[in-house]
Amino acid sequence: MRFDLRFPIIVAALLVVGLMTVSTAALAPRVSPGIFPKQVLGVGLSLLPIGLLWWAGRDRIFRAAPWLYGFAILLQMSTFVIGKDINGQQNWIVLGPVQFQPLELLKLSLILMLPLVMKEGYKGLRSYLLPLALFLPALGLVIVQDFGGAMVLSVMFVAMLLVFRMPIWHLLVLVLAVGAVFPTVIFPHLKPYQQTRLTIFVNPYQDARGNGYQVIQSTIAIGSGGMMGKGYKQGTQSHNGFVPEAHTDFAFATWAEEQGLVGGVAVLLLYGGLVWGLAGMASGSPRLQDQILFAGILGQVGFQAVENIGAALSMLPLTGITLPLISYGLSSLVMTLTTLGLAYVVYRDRFDKMI
After folding, report:
1. What is the pLDDT of residues 57-71, one digit of tens each?
2. Which residue among 51, 251, 332, 353 is least enclosed by CB atoms within 10 Å?
3. CA angle, corner 238, sides to 24 and 216, nearest 5?
4. Are 317 and 195 in contact (CB under 8 A)?
5. What H or E segment, with its residue span, contains residue 55?
6. Based on the structure, what is the number of domains in the chain?
7. Three-class secondary structure of residue 237 per DSSP
């Protein structure tokens, strides 16, 4: 079937959850009430790039990939010069009332560019040269300022490598190398607050009034929702300011407090359906190039959802990664919708003439 309506229906359902969450989070102290109209604006703005992708089609989109990648790299580099510091990270570009995070465009450019140089599949160690030549500069630019963003890029790349048909023993070597390098080389060079955020989830009560406060309040809010929740806009933990970043990092806690276990499970099922849909698109596409693209999108959206929800439940480190389609954020929302729109267009054109 050329079009699968289940995929856009799931996306629309997650958008409804996101708009409900942002609207109720706007009632919390220290949160601007203007975030809800901005989130609605983000949904509207996303129609422009999605419409452009729909018109351009698969082949034109892939032809534009090198230009998009080059522009995204330059934009990410510019943050070291003109970037604005927001929430401790100097990786935002601010133009008047508009705030934009170049990382979001960089994710999309890699999702498009890497499949172009990986479309022949693994044919020996030299097959890694071009993908690494594209990925490592992007990773290097991001990891300096945003460790969470670097994690997302890395998971995207690994997901693509798996579909690239890399030998499994190469993956095992990679995992062992990361396991050895991270605690001995990378972790000691992270900023103190980054180190704390990566470890505090193990026992947040060891610093309940300090670094563990956010995670503790998140779990209290989720637990207080019970089975059915307190009701829409009836959350007490979030509305009274106990849940920090109730509209971004802990959007899931805000939702679960008001919608309870049933609402939380519903969100998990929606993300499961989204991932299943992307996996189905990959398996239904005849070209390896398209399969790698779907793997990258699946890696990005799936990892961000798992990491954000896991952090809210104190099961995973707190990295500042937003919850796709639900957390507040104009650039994140527009680019996530654009990326999912890209998946739908490539799937639509999967049997068209090859480049």
Report:
1. 999 999 999 999 999
2. 353
3. 145
4. no
5. helix 35-82
6. 1
7. coil
Q: Looking at this protein, which amino acid is placed at residue 343? A: A
Residues in contact with 120: Cβ distance below 8 Å, sequence separation at least 6, in sequence order: 127, 288
The string of pLDDT tens digits covering residues 139-167 is: 999 988 888 899 999 999 999 999 998 88
**Cα first-last separation, the chain:** 22
Classify residue 206 as left (phi > 0), alpha (psi -120 to 50) or beta: alpha
Name every residue whose Cβ is closer than 8 Å to that of residue 17 and which is 6 or more positions away in sequence: 255, 267, 270, 325, 326
In a domain, 354, yes or no: no
Query: Is 31 inside a domain boundary?
Result: yes
What predicted TM-score, i.e. pTM, was given to this entire model? 0.93
Q: How many residues appear in the chain?
A: 355
- Percent composition of the chain: helix, strand, coil (DSSP 3-state, to 5): 70, 5, 25
Q: Which domain holds residue 310?
A: 6-348
Segments of the chain scoring below 70 in pLDDT: 1-3, 87-89, 353-355
CA separation for the pair 230, 210 (Å, rounded): 28
d(CA 203, CA 262): 27
- Spell out the residues 6+ positions from residue 210 whose beta carbon is closer than 8 angstroms to its own: none
**Spatial CA neighbour of 317 closest among 306, 325, 328:** 306
257-286 b/e with 16+ CB inside 10 Å = b?
bbbbeebbeebeebbebbbebbeebbeebe
Per the domain annotation, does 355 fall within a domain?
Answer: no
